[in-house]
From TrEMBL, chain A:
This is Cytochrome ubiquinol oxidase subunit I. Pfam families: Cyt_bd_oxida_I (PF01654). It is a multi-pass membrane protein. It is found in: Cell membrane. InterPro entries: Cyt-d_ubiquinol_oxidase_su_1 (IPR002585). The keyword rRNA-binding does not apply. It comes from Terribacillus saccharophilus. The chain crosses the membrane at residues 20-41, 53-71, 91-115, 127-146, 185-205, 217-235, 329-350, 362-384, 413-436. The lineage of its organism: Bacteria, Bacillati, Bacillota, Bacilli, Bacillales. Its main location: membrane.
Automatic annotation (TrEMBL), chain B:
The chain crosses the membrane at residues 6-37, 82-103, 115-138, 158-179, 200-217, 229-247, 254-275, 303-326. It holds the Pfam family Cyt_bd_oxida_II. The keyword Iron applies. It comes from the Bacteria. The lineage of its organism: Bacteria, Bacillati, Bacillota, Bacilli, Bacillales. The keyword Cell membrane applies. Belongs to the cytochrome ubiquinol oxidase subunit 2 family. This is Cytochrome d ubiquinol oxidase subunit II. It is found in: Cell membrane. NCBIfam families: cydB. It is a multi-pass membrane protein. It comes from Terribacillus saccharophilus.
Length: 466, 338
């Protein structure tokens, strides 16, 4: 394998791994903030217990998210130095702002939140977790603005042999960003919500701490329901935008070789032959692709063959068709799971409202499995987005094969790939073990009486500058 | 008037200085928790003393790297790919350390805790050691060709001078961390930190003098920026003597200020010595990356300047506030989070 392939495997594995934790952190921080706010407003200790219990799990997850995220800031330079040179003028800014605005916010206020239960007034403490949540959302916004630039470059000009920024506002208002960002954040809220729902389901099936877990379920299912609707709506917006800006990705995610009929049918599944550039055994639903692409029941969608011709004229000879099967199937996995999340949330909210939740054994069992749905859906969505953009790393400007580091050897990449993978596997195993431990300990575990707050200046010799 | 390029060079330097000032004592506390603490409770006191801060302190590094990327893409690209394995090791260290703090206290099995203690130790030694090696190699000069690509052999990165730089920085972190311990810990732990910091005084003095001596011969820093560096060197000697005085007199706050100043002077000198270059080519002076040749365009720098100037007061404000909130010493007889 060469440096390009190894670097791609490394980027894919470290980023997908990182993105298991990120959405859970974004989702849990938001839900915990809601729980703690309810504690402050309703003065009911039940909610404090919730914030603390889910907080423990959040912290374990957050730690792994943070450390796997550090690597992200470095690996563009380490493995993709030519990319960094070429787009740094535009791409570096959102990363720097992300660090300055988001990372400081979440890390500082998380420290205050963890250690501040007894030291801060209740509402200030609740404000801390809201600021953590805001930090995680800012972080998503700025990193997605960087990603959106790769999908759909705006606010840039090609000069001095590289891309230079000439309109920052355009980068912040990139249409791609404003469909990608809500979709990702709703997906993250759903990840946190279904996690809480699933863990609560396990406890409810065993009839443990029923009141506590029912309460947690209630908060989470509301978030899940809103997120589920948000995912569907923002996903639809994203598809409309995709047809306009990256028709090749759309065509690949549909396995569409020739231009479609008008109105365009949606392919549920197909046996794709990328050699012969044709499909067999297709199952199609009429009108649906037209609706997905244009929001109406008419209109033809351009196929890969005619796009390939168009791109060859535009960008010179080369293969502009991404790996079709991966794009096609990851899109289907994502949409099916997204639909399932919405359906299960509606069902759960219905059962809760009818007070049938605790007796609905099948629903609870399904929700345990459904913990995995958002995780798989998130990953599939990113696989589709990034694989579907190939061969480009920055659409229309730079191909992935030209982006890799010039001075780095395959051996070096292989070494770091193997070591990081091993490290990540260990992290993952430890994290799961700790999750199970925390969950087994249950919500009653750490209700310790608050300690009296000693006046820091009473004891002699305690002043820093004495 | 300061050009934008110069301003951003200073800002990147300030972020690295801030990182070593803050995370420097975190690293030191991490190392000291292995050697100065005698039992699990004391070890936990050490870890809790940096508990609320270490994550935010580490963000200084992330921000420094992010600022480098935004303002000097060529510097970022050449340095991170050129020092590939160095950065890989730094990342292993930071990753292990970060989770170790969080994971260690989650179970009380002795083997579990001991394992994470080792991770904390190595995770606290590797980053300053490798950063020290890398910064020293940077001022010594590394083979960079006309396309800004760095092709370093092992001896360009690892040699007597660079290793001395790495060890010096690591030992300074230990010392800085111990003095931080005198501020945040109590009773016997506090005493032990102070004693250990005192006993490091002569060792670190020798390391610093040896490092500065070698820097005089191995780099062009003193011929390029002789005056200012000699001046800083004098200040450094005074500060170091003062630190010894304050440690002996148990004026811990002042001692911490002095150890912090030493850290600031050292890292700042590295950046002053580099300027106006950001990476020195050992092949030809013409191939060196400079604040001009490595930087982003004016528009991008201007946007980043506005944004960072608008955000920095808030960031500094709430970080200082968080130190104020946790001004109380860690008492290992009370409840501890980690």
């Amino acid at each position: 394998m060469d440096v390009v392939e190894l670097s791609r495997i490394q980027f894919a594995s470290t980023t997908l791994f990182h993105f298991l934790f990120v959405p859970l952190s974004i989702g849990l921080a938001f839900i915990i903030a809601i729980m703690e706010t309810m504690y402050v407003v309703k003065k009911d200790d039940k909610y404090k217990k919730m914030a603390k219990f889910w907080g423990h799990i959040f912290l374990i997850n957050f730690a792994v998210g943070v450390v796997t995220g550090i690597l992200q800031e470095f690996q563009f330079g380490m493995n993709w130095s030519e990319y960094s040179r070429f787009v740094g003028d535009v791409f570096g800014a959102p990363l720097a702002i992300e660090a300055l605005l988001a990372f400081f916010l979440e890390s500082t206020f998380l420290g205050l939140w963890i250690f501040g239960w007894d030291r801060l007034p209740k509402w200030v403490h609740a404000l801390c977790i809201w600021l953590v949540s805001l930090g995680t959302i800012f972080s998503a916004f700025f990193i997605l603005s960087a990603n959106s630039f790769m999908q759909h470059p705006v606010g840039e000009v090609l000069q001095n042999g590289r891309l230079e920024m000439n309109d920052f506002l355009a980068i912040m208002t990139n249409g791609q960003l404003w469909v990608e960002f809500p979709h990702t954040v709703f997906g993250s809220f759903a990840t946190g919500a279904l996690f809480i729902v699933g863990i609560s389901a396990i406890a409810l099936l065993r009839k443990k701490h029923v009141a506590f877990y029912k309460g947690s379920f209630k908060v989470a299912i509301v978030v899940a329901l809103i997120s589920g609707i948000g995912i569907a709506l923002s996903g639809h917006e994203q598809a409309l935008y995709l047809v306009e800006t990256q028709p090749m990705k759309m065509a690949a995610s549909e396995g569409l070789w020739e231009d479609s009929a008008d109105p365009a049918p949606w392919t549920v599944f197909a046996n794709i032959d990328t050699e012969a550039k044709e499909n067999s055994g297709e199952l199609k639903i009429p009108y649906v692709l037209s609706f997905l692409s244009y929001g109406e029941f008419s209109g033809s969608v351009e196929g890969m063959n005619s796009l390939q011709e168009r791109y060859t004229e535009l960008y010179g000879p080369g293969n502009y068709i991404p790996p079709v099967k991966t794009t096609f199937w990851s899109f289907r996995v994502m949409t099916v799971l997204g639909g399932a999340v919405l359906a299960l949330s509606i069902w759960g909210a219905y059962l809760y409202a009818r007070k049938k939740l605790v007796t609905s054994k099948w629903y609870l069992r399904i929700m345990i499995v459904a913990i995995s749905f958002p995780f798989i859906g998130n990953s599939a969505g990113w696989i589709m987005t990034e694989i579907g953009r190939q061969p480009w790393v920055v659409f229309g400007y730079m191909k992935t094969e030209d982006a890799v580091s010039a001075g780095v050897t395959a051996g070096e990449v292989l070494f770091s790939l193997i070591t990081f993978s091993a490290l990540y596997l260990i992290l993952f195993a430890v994290m799961i073990t700790l999750f199970v431990r925390e969950i087994k300990k249950g919500p009653e575990h750490d209700i310790e009486e608050t300690e009296p707050i000693a006046d820091p200046f009473t004891k002699e010799g305690q002043h820093a500058f004495s | 008037m300061l050009s934008l390029n110069e301003f951003w060079f200073i800002l990147v330097a300030v972020l690295f200085v801030g990182f070593f000032f803050l995370e420097g004592f975190d690293f030191g506390v991490g190392i000291a928790s292995k050697f100065v603490a005698k039992d699990d409770l004391e070890r936990r006191a050490f870890i809790n003393s940096i508990g609320p801060y270490w994550d935010a302190n580490e963000v200084w590094l992330i921000t420094a790297i992010g600022a480098m990327f935004a303002a000097f893409p060529n510097w970022y690209a050449s340095m991170l790919s050129g020092f590939y394995l160095c950065f890989a090791f730094i990342l292993f260290g930071l990753i292990g350390r970060g989770v170790a703090f969080e994971f260690r206290g989650k179970a009380d099995h002795p083997t579990w805790r001991k394992t994470w203690d080792w991770v904390i130790l190595f995770g606290s030694i590797i980053p300053p050691l490798v950063f020290g090696i890398m910064f020293t190699a940077l001022i010594q000069g590394v083979p960079i060709d006309e396309n800004m690509h760095m092709h370093a052999g092992i001896s360009d990165v690892i040699n007597v001078y660079t290793v001395l730089g790495g060890v010096t920085l690591t030992m300074l972190c230990v010392w800085h961390g111990l003095i931080f311990g005198t501020l945040r810990l109590m009773d016997t732990l506090r005493e032990r930190c102070r004693r250990a910091a005192k006993s490091l005084l002569p060792i670190n003095a020798i390391l610093l003098v040896a490092f500065l001596g070698m820097t005089f011969f191995k780099t062009d820093m003193f011929s390029v920026h002789g005056n200012i560096l000699e001046y800083l060197f004098m200040v450094g000697i005074l500060v170091y003597i003062a630190s010894g005085y304050f440690i002996t007199r148990k004026r811990d706050g002042w001692a911490f200020l002095m150890s912090g100043l030493i850290m600031i002077l050292l890292i700042a000198s590295v950046f002053i010595g580099l300027f106006p270059r950001v990476m020195i080519s050992s092949i030809s002076e013409a191939y060196s990356l400079t604040v001009q040749s490595a930087s982003s365009g004016d528009y991008s720098l201007k946007v980043m300047t506005y944004i960072s100037l608008a955000l920095l007061p808030f960031v500094l404000g709430y970080q200082i506030w968080s130190y104020y909130v946790f001004r109380k010493r860690v008492d290992h007889k009370e409840h501890m989070e980690y």
